[in-house]
Amino acid sequence: MTGGLEGLIVVALEQAVAAPLATSRLADAGARVIKLERPEGDFARGYDDYVLGQSSYFVWNNRGKESCTVDLKTAEDLELLLSMLERADVFVQNLAAGATDRLGIGSASLRARFPRLIVCDIGGYAEGTPDHQRKAYDLLVQAEAGLAGITGSDESGPSRVGISICDIATGQAAYAAILEALFRRERTGQGSHIQLSLFDTIAEFMNVPYLTRRYGGKEPRRPGLAHPSIAPYGVFRTSDAEILISIQNEREWKIFCEGVLRDAAIAADPLYSRNTDRVKNRASLDAKVQQAIGGMSIDEVCKLLDAVRIAYGRLSTVDDLMRHRSAAFAEVETPEGKVTLLAPPNIVDGQRPALRPVPALGEHDAMLRAEFAPRETVSENAR
Length: 383
Known about the structure:
Order of helices and strands: EHEHEHEHHEHEEHEHHEEHHHHHEHEEH
Strand content: 15-25%
CATH architecture of the largest domain: 3-Layer(aba) Sandwich
Number of domains: 2
CATH superfamily of the largest domain: Crotonobetainyl-coa:carnitine coa-transferase, domain 1
Mean pLDDT: 93
CATH topology of the largest domain: Rossmann fold
Strand order of the largest sheet: 3-2-1-4-5-8
Low-confidence stretches: 377-383
Shape: elongated
Helix content: 25-40%
CATH class of the largest domain: Alpha Beta
Number of strands: 13
Structural class: alpha/beta
């Protein structure tokens, strides 16, 4: 299957997670992604060495790219970059705030020079805010935006989300914005300047707790493995494992009482008849659910819930995920050998994208420098 973005050229002056994730999605869709790395490489290459001696972060987010090492403090490599941008469709960068402007390749300059170019700038905080110049990393933004404050439990205190959610969410938002800009260019012939920040992305995700606090007057609690505004919706222990059970509406609540709790009268009890009442009386309600299923095995509970079409999820370890019956996997070549990844989620016409190789540092230096050897002057009217 041909990728929908085949023929497009993306130049990525990127590091860490957010921008590389966005461009890896573009690569999966068929775009040619040229990854520009400092001579010592993207520092995500050194985050860990779990994957055949390579970084798990780097292997995941840099498949399908061509790696070219550059030192943009030299005139030669700066001209090489401009020569690439002369032919590029998209430029993605997530250097420190103001770095591209100091190099003379800021968004305003590039958009004036290459009107069809889509420029995507990714930072920690939005331009124009007092925090724009601050360094910002995923865990710091989880704390700053209030996400850590509503994660965890009252007993354990604030907690980090177990993955780099700010980086990942921002990368996905950048991918979506770039696709929108490409569609807009098809209609108008003009490129766009896209700006995203980790803080804005995750703050927008915080709208439910924000609205709860601003208009409901309640500071959201750290719910642990329970939904803060729906009950029963949380974790319960069977005789041999743990399971999360979710009730979404009053119809399901009645079915659950009859088919699982084996006590239809509970559904009409004023303490539990509406979701808002169930949330207020969560402790006693959870005790009733626990009493009903605690003596059964996880398989028995799952069979019972399946029979009445009530949603649930087993509390899995990563080891469980490796063996999950619904998990899909894909292989990718790396400089140190073939690696199995969890597969991308998009299935188009019955197929998931084929994953192209992860590059070694500077693997494509000679080829790219020959292909994009700068002319004496890059045409001002190139685009």
